[in-house]
Amino acid sequence: MNKNEYIPFLSEIVEVIKHTEIEYTFRMAYDGEVKPGQFFEVSFPKYGEAPISVSGIENGCVDLTIRRVGKVTNEVFEKYVGDKLFLRGPYGNGFDVDDYKGKEIVVVAGGTGVSPVRGVVDYFAKNASSRKDMSFIAGFKSKEDILFEKDFEFWRESMNVVLTLDAGEETKEHKIGLVTKYIPQLKLKEVKEAVAIVVGPPAMMHFSVLALLELGLQEDNIWISQERKMCCGIGKCGHCKIGNQYVCLDGPVFRYTQGKHLVD
Amino acid sequence: MGYELSKEQMNEILSQLKEDYLIYAPKCFQDGGRFSDTDCIRYGEINKIEEIVFDKKAEYSFKEVLLPISQTLFYFTEDSVKEADAPKQGAIVFLRSCDLHSVKRLDEIYLRNGFSDYYYQRLRERVVFVLMGCQTAFDSCFCVDMGTNQSNEYDMSIDRSENGYQLDCKSNQLEKLLSQYATNNLSVTPAYVTETKTRVNIPSNLSYQIGNSNMWREYDTRCINCGRCNFVCPTCTCFTMQDIFYTDNEKAGERRRVWASCMVDGYTDVAGGASYRQKNGDRMRFKVLHKVLDYKERNGYHMCVGCGRCDDICPEYISFSHCINKLENGMKEVMEHE
């Protein structure tokens, strides 16, 4: 008999990092292999499961950034260090950092879309010599919505970081406007060779990719990550299917050339 | 090997089989229909061969035997999880060729698409299939066009005959039992239809561009997204996870999976309130293309088996087979606007 993939395992909360009033990162004990952009099915007490992408990987831990978006996730926010959560995973393909090594890199992310790319950005901040120039454009609704604020200071040391807010006043730390406003301003050295990752809400991804193509990037050099309702994570429940692709099995990371044909 | 058995002999065999198996077949639930004073033909456990309804189509498929409408996966308390037990008995399922072909589709999703499903597999391994021959097609059937009108993948077949029932047996285990009663050895081929009243044509140039056609807009208003078409379909396999907590002890509960429908609200909801395919016409498009386009791209053959149950069940009289037949003009329309 094959393994029962539905049985979750208990994982201890090692640290809780509060980004905003409604978004916390739970650093969970996990020792197996995992890639940025993959996801875990997290059991939410009294509700069921929800897919949460890995927002960071550190020795023996994975970060799961969870937003309090309603009744369903509330209970998790009453959990503290030392408490445990049931997890399954990791599932999905995730980002393969080898795809971007030795290249000029652009990462564009919006809102919680920053979670799945954080591991990639962090990797190339710590291993700056393994790539050429790098730009990271991250957009949030307002100052209160910024995730991973401390990381941005660290990332700025090794790459061009544009942190932008939808509205408000411009400061030294952040600009104002949608991410798409800052894509045309990128100064890429070899645009035909450059690689890009775009993650965020559907409209943001659509217009960001168009802006990157406008800039001269090749379709084949752009990766996107799709957010769907993955109930099972293992290709059975059907909720995440788009066209002939299952986001949980074939994605959530797609090359743009693969993903652009997918119609919901 | 072929056998002819009387009603009495069949019932003796069934009563022997009942010791090890639950026996499911289409049967009549009197006054159980969707309108007053109507019956419902659907799957249920049978004790006698006379209970099987041969001359009408089961409104619902057999799939609940392999995929229960609500299935407990495990029980949990605060820190521990206990897997739900498998049923003690295996199952024998009487079904028609279209439904037997749908088993291949269920296997494709549940045993092969990514991980193998533990709960499906443990039921599947203990199911025996008895093919019910079809003398004639029902009005809404279109199995011939879908290539599912004939099947050899059965453990045993059954057709009614003048003296009782004719059987073709491929299972050694059943063979042993039948040979105790066998009147003579025949060559039996289960009946199958070669033509249907309802015909479908899936255009060979069908592509996702069909999504741009206006044909889907008709369903925006006609469809009421009740999801019945999905629930009667022998090839629809979607489910949603659900946790139940006991009212007497909120720290203990169970996780279940329950049938889900891509036509019903909430199917695509993601955290934060976003969802995809809000128009019913777009949901219709998603379902239709899964049955006759994208599943084939992935697995090499169409998902739809042409049982026509979705046509029969729709409260708005939307016909899936008509919709398939509109695809050709829909493709012409989108190609012209290229």
UniProtKB/TrEMBL annotation, chain A:
Requisite cofactors: [2Fe-2S] cluster
GO biological process: pyrimidine nucleotide biosynthetic process
Cofactor note: Binds 1 [2Fe-2S] cluster per subunit.
Gene3D superfamilies: Nucleotide-binding domain of ferredoxin-NADP reductase (FNR) module, Translation factors
Claim: Metal-binding is one of the keywords in the record: yes
Keyword GTP-binding in record: no
Pfam family, one: NAD_binding_1
Molecular function per GO: 2 iron, 2 sulfur cluster binding; flavin adenine dinucleotide binding; metal ion binding; oxidoreductase activity
Transmembrane segments: none
Keywords: 2Fe-2S, Iron, Iron-sulfur, Metal-binding
Protein name according to UniProt: Anaerobic sulfite reductase subunit B
Binding site for [2Fe-2S] cluster: 232, 237, 240, 248
Domain of life where this protein originates: Bacteria
InterPro entries: Cyt_c3_hydrogenase_gsu, Dihydroorotate_DH_Fe-S-bd, FAD-bd_FR_type, FNR_nucleotide-bd, OxRdtase_FAD/NAD-bd, PyrK_electron_transfer, Riboflavin_synthase-like_b-brl, Sulphite_reductase_B
Residue stretches making up the FAD-binding FR-type domain: 6-97
UniProtKB/TrEMBL annotation, chain B:
GO MF annotations, alphabetized: iron-sulfur cluster binding; metal ion binding
Protein's name in the database: Anaerobic sulfite reductase subunit A
A Pfam family per the record: Fer4_22
Protein origin, superkingdom: Bacteria
Keywords: Iron, Iron-sulfur, Metal-binding
Domain 4Fe-4S ferredoxin-type: 213-244, 294-323
SUPFAM superfamilies linked to this entry: alpha-helical ferredoxin
Organism of this sequence: Candidatus Galacturonatibacter soehngenii
InterPro entries reported for this sequence: 4Fe4S_Fe-S-bd, 4Fe4S_Fe_S_CS, Helical_ferredxn, Sulphite_reductase_A
Top-level taxonomy: Bacteria, Bacillati, Bacillota, Clostridia, Lachnospirales
UniProt keyword Iron-sulfur present: yes
